[in-house]
Fold each of these.
Amino acid sequence: MPGINYEDFLDLDYEPRDSELVCTFAVDPASDMDMTDAAGRVASESSNGTWAELQAEGSITDLSATACAIDDGRITVAYPDALFEDGNMAQVLSCIAGNIMGMKAVERIRLLDCDWPEPLATTFPGPQFGTSVREEIFDAGDRPITATVPKPKVGLSTDQHAQIGYEAWTGGLDLLKDDENLTDQDFNPFADRLTESLAQRDRAEDETGEKKSYLVNVTADTRRMLERVDMVAEHGGEYVMVDVVTCGWSAVQRVRERCDEHGLAIHAHRAMHAAFDRIPDHGVSMRVLAQVSRLCGADQLHTGTADLGKLENEDTAGINEWLYTDLHGLNDVLPVASGGLHPGLVPELIDRVGTNVCVQAGGGVHGHPDGTHAGAKALRAAVDAAAAGEDIEAKADEVPELATAIEKWGTETPR
Ligand SMILES: O=C(COP(=O)(O)O)[C@H](O)[C@H](O)COP(=O)(O)O
Ligand SMILES: [Mg+2]
């Protein structure tokens, strides 16, 4: 009887088929393994094999992955389409980023990139709106849209939170955003925050003549999230915000489905991503996380500040480029630059990532010496100037709030 062993998962002459999911891994084999052994073990454990030689016969090997290239510490693995369940991201990730991450056959392993084939990619919905939110919701023309997150992150009362929203919106920002750890706590209950913030949004829209919107954080267990999504639709919101990593992809998929019914966009916060993408040679890359977010239907996603902000970033510009590139007809995704931004950093940011983004700042708005309203004016002026290719210092001569922000923070990267 033929056995399946991990050598059977290695074929360096193999050409992946168009229907296969092709993944690139960086691999550091265990000390008693060479790269070919490790490559075979990765393909085996992530598809239908294990450490032992199996005495199984027949078609089960049709589900085997093939390690088909080894190059400079990297391996390429091709996964047959039949291995995957349609539209089930949890199942896909349990294959390609599952047991192999802890397998003793490798010292370190990182899933760097995936090439998503049409048969699998199109079983996912992708974003409902993507970058079109800039035009469709805000009529923003060529400029990036702007957002702010009230600080302190948590602890503001509902009234204080909504008031900050009003000041930010009337100062010129497009979006008020909840912070990742604000959901439905006693000091600021979800339902009250939603209604009060949207009431202030309406007021700000009347006063400014501009469209404004609110990214309310619906993150919870799936049942509560869906109830919250319904509430947002009922009260006239345009978006929900979801902490996509902490709540999990299956939950995101359900939210995407419900948002489709309501025509709501999804803002994806990536809190916790750094637990598996910060160490460069292990885990799952931010690039793959961005791909997964797009497939599951995030319309806008935090992708970092191209190293200008307070947090570590992985290839923001490259990931953003991927989010814009065609993926078998699925919509694109609007990247959100956030984390330690302030007006003085905006020209360099736009230089690095372009204008098809959302520029988001918390401390860089509310830490303005003259408060939130002035901070919002400064950020909007910086964004308008940078998008129009105008010098920010010249703009600061016209907008005193921007001059004050530049005086306070200069062009420093915060920590
Ligand atoms: O609260 C903030 C930013 O606040 P501030 O502007 O005060 O730093 C966001 O949670 C970060 O953007 C997350 O990081 P990332 O966007 O990299 O996921
Ligand atoms: Mg935050």
Amino acid sequence: MYLTNSGGQISLSRIFDGNPVATIVIDSEHRVIHWNRACAVMTGVPASEMIGSRDQWRAFYPDPRPILADLIVDGAVESKVDTFYHGKFHRSELIEGAYEAEDFFPAFGDHGCWLFFTAAPICDDQGRVIGAIETLQNVTERHRAEEALRASEERYRELSRTDALTGLLNTRTLWEHLLHEIARAKRYGRPLSLMVLDCDDFKAINDRFGHLEGDRVLIELAALIRACERGSDSAYRYGGEEFVILLPETAATSAMQLAERVRARFAGIRLPLADAEAISATISIGVAEWRPGEDEQTLIRRADEAVYAAKHRGKNCVVLAE
Ligand SMILES: Nc1nc2c(ncn2[C@@H]2O[C@H](COP(=O)(O)OP(=O)(O)OP(=O)(O)O)[C@@H](O)[C@H]2O)c(=O)[nH]1
């Protein structure tokens, strides 16, 4: 078949060969009849090794198996395409009987390669499939950019949910979780407790040792809280030197025990300073168990009031909310 122009004729195989998109054509016997230059460059396999053979798989896979064009020649039975390209293919919206797929080829290039490939049937005048044409494009760069974007979105999502200094969840997340946990406690009639922890005399710590050392105390307290929380608990930085631990499935007695453990362990910590001095600090804790019908603001307010009560009792203690 020829195209004609003022300069003469161009054969179809020259057109294929000049196509910058890697292209393979096979006949009804699965024999390769075209393997263009772009395909040779992409796969590293010259056309001379492929034309007339049924070895097209060799350019892509370690073991013999059909490529997409082979499945098209075999009638493009969807279940068969699915066997080889599960979750990675869909029907072409442009050409009937054609498929598009995207897959990772670990042996391509230095670190593997993502290819987007399409295969369509070639039919005779009666509509019988007499071969298939497959095109392949390297979409690795696009994939890497998408992965980087996903990772950065995930990082931003994480940052928007956490407190930068301590790495604990932030107040916004606390309100979300609290609403959810109250709804759950209500629906299933389960206990739910919460504690508010407030660093004692923190202004004096800042004044005496400096703001950076104050930050160290907060970081240390956050680490201790994280070490003490159980699987279903979650911890939040609630304000400057205030923290919250949310305790699903926990009644007041257990919450008080946990609070007492955190208080005692924190009081025992000595943060060494350069001049052989050490910082020690204490916390006051208010514990509140959710009451049926109570909303999140009221629950937190009761725990806050218990913290004030603890401060009035001399600090470094735990008080159960009224
Ligand atoms: N280093 C540091 N200090 C903070 C941070 N956030 C808040 N603060 C300080 O925490 C101190 C809290 O002081 P107050 O609310 O007066 O409470 P307190 O000194 O702990 O006194 P009591 O609550 O009665 O024990 C303030 O001086 C704030 O500036 C922070 O992220 N880092």
Amino acid sequence: MDKSAYPYHGGRLRWHSSLAKLTFWSFVFIGIIFIFFYRSPSSVSRFHSDPSRRSLRTSSWGGPAWEKKVQTSARIRSRNGFSVLVTGAAGFVGTHVSAALKRRGDGVLGLDNFNDYYDPTLKRARQELLERSGVFIVEGDINDAALLKKLFQVVPFTHVMHLAAQAGVRYAMQNPSSYVHSNVAGFVSLLEVCKEATSQPAIVWASSSSVYGLNTKVPFSEKDKTDQPASLYAATKKAGEEIAHTYNHIYGLSLTGLRFFTVYGPWGRPDMAYFFFTKDILNGKSIPIFEGENHGTVARDFTYIDDIVKGCLGALDTAQKSTGSGGKKKGPAQLRVFNLGNTSPVPVTNLVTILERILKVKAKRNVMKLPRNGDVQFTHANISLAHRELGYKPTTDLQAGLKKFVRWYLNYYSAAGKKADAR
Ligand SMILES: O=C(O)[C@H]1O[C@H](OP(=O)(O)OP(=O)(O)OC[C@H]2O[C@@H](n3ccc(=O)[nH]c3=O)[C@H](O)[C@@H]2O)[C@H](O)[C@@H](O)[C@@H]1O
């Protein structure tokens, strides 16, 4: 074929080939950008974040300045001190435990995903508080294995205080997957990284009084069976205890589970009854007070935060070393579970009466039958094991503890002009 007879056709061919080249290079360029983003450590958590519990900021981590901050925060400043990774450090218990560890000279690094299960400004305020005492909180999720591995590369943690969790009994009916994500998958993700460490850390973690579920024998003892959880929350905490057993058995990780009993106090959680009762009483709003069948009492073994902190520190101090290394068990390791309660259950109606007295405001009580929402009718801890092994001895009764809580509440929400965005 005489190509010269078709000059236009030849031009179109050239045009086609340059279009093909352009398309090819565009793909290469987009591909490079994609690979860069996918491999960049700061993007990892974005890909792994849980859509059901939004983190309000995009997290970023990595780089020399970040590593230095991590190391400085985790540096031990006392003889025989620990280097502790505290997960859920911007949470209620996490903040108090981190501050206490730092005060006594342990190195502390926080990790928190700052999700919006409750008002994240409260979590940010707790973060500020910790920052002032030298505790850095890394923003990230316990499901982010790349981040956890990095943290263990930067700091050889001696201990992990694992408090990151999806808390709250009733919310489990609204957002069940968030419980599986944090309390089951997140826990496994953390244990996987811990077991791989050359020097495995000892792990102390938050279980819950809710594992006693529908048990009727009181007080609840660690020896009792825990096979009747009343909520998905309780079921995920119970699963955590079984998972702990497995990692202890296979990899030699030292694991201590603490069954917390309705912890309350300053910097507390706005989703908990004592907190939003305070807010609603002050706002003249009626409060739902649950009661059992035939006007049966609903009661909790409310435990003050400072007592819980002492229990947590006692558990860390008595935790034996893990025995494994690099994913291999070298010998049997410690496996423990303790109740951390107050041993004196208080009916919810009495809690309200105490609040009325402290606030000097009459509550608008709306007494109703305990809804089928996962709540159990009562909790009551036997703490003799924790007393014996950890030296645990709660000293704050509900009246004294609530006074301290209310003082903090009024100060926090009035001084800072913050709104009590409780639920
Ligand atoms: O002990 C525990 O392990 C658990 O303690 C609390 O759970 P809960 O005891 O249900 O604490 P609140 O939500 O503050 O409820 C306290 C009491 O107030 C009652 N309540 C709650 C809400 C309400 O509107 N009215 C009401 O009477 C509940 O039934 C319960 O008896 C925490 O929220 C859980 O995260 C924790 O794991």
